[in-house]
Specification:
The protein is mainly α. It is about 35% helix and about 5% strand.
Length: about 260
């Protein structure tokens, strides 16, 4: 039976981890995984209307995105608590080989052929070499720790004008930690097609868990945004899902 809640990847048994990995592999083979990769890239094309990032909808839209992958693989996504486990999650392949363009040559995804965005062709193309690209610790020297997480859990409001990344509201702080993890993992995680690396999902499950901890402290419906991103405004490229539709906190083994 599939688990009914999202658990810490570090606490899973090898069998439980393999269930998640098998789900990713099956989704990749069916083409459903690549559809999500393309959807995320399209949400990062610089269009201020359709972008999912650097705005209040960051957290609800990615909570919705997590439900998409869970529906496809048939199991809950575990989370990578990077505030306490500050290395690549075990069992998902290691860092890239610097002698092979930082290609990940170990783990279950070593032979994946990933889709990337070719800005010259203005199209998705398959990368010539197999495998993911990771270059840990180059573009960010470290990961946010529990002190940083606890600090932002205490901050209100949820978001504030001018609704970008220049204020010190909760969402801006969490987005900074979010960006830092993408940069620290490096490689594919630094691109619009970052879901190519399954670490993306574990990272975002942890980010969602942090939002859940904030909601527990400050109210599930405590959400601030400008017109167009309000609680009942449909989020772009989600089939009409609204932020309010994602206010309920998913079940986690532990909220921060």
């Amino acid at each position: 039976m599939a688990p009914s809640l999202r658990r810490n990847w570090a606490s899973l048994t090898s069998t439980q981890r393999q269930t998640v990995i098998n789900g990713f592999l099956s989704a990749k083979q069916s083409g459903a995984y690549d559809q999500l990769v393309m959807q995320h890239q399209q949400a990062m094309m610089g269009n201020p209307v359709t972008d999912w990032h650097q705005k209040p909808i960051l957290l609800p839209v990615h909570r919705w995105f997590l439900t998409r992958i869970e529906a496809i693989i048939g199991t809950k996504i575990p989370y990578w608590d990077w505030s306490t486990q500050q290395s690549v999650p075990a069992g998902l392949g290691g860092n890239g080989d610097p002698n092979q363009g930082y290609r990940v040559t170990t783990g279950p995804f070593a032979n994946w052929r990933v889709l990337i965005w070719d800005s010259t062709k203005n199209a998705f193309v398959t990368r010539d070499q197999p495998g993911l690209i990771r270059q840990t610790g180059v573009y960010a020297s470290g990961l946010s720790n529990t002190d940083a997480v606890n600090w932002w859990l205490s901050v209100t409001p949820y978001d504030a004008s001018p609704w970008d990344t220049t204020t010190s509201a909760f969402r801006q702080g969490v987005e900074g930690m979010h960006d830092g993890v993408h940069a620290w993992v490096g490689g594919d995680m630094r691109t619009g097609t970052s879901p190519n690396d399954p670490i993306f999902w574990l990272h975002h499950a942890n980010l969602d868990r942090i939002w859940g901890g904030w909601q527990k402290r400050h109210g599930t419906t405590n959400y601030t945004a400008p017109a167009g991103q309000g609680p009942n405004d449909p989020m772009p490229n989600t089939g009409g899902t609204t932020p309010a539709g994602m206010f309920s906190i998913p079940a986690y083994d532990l909220l921060p």
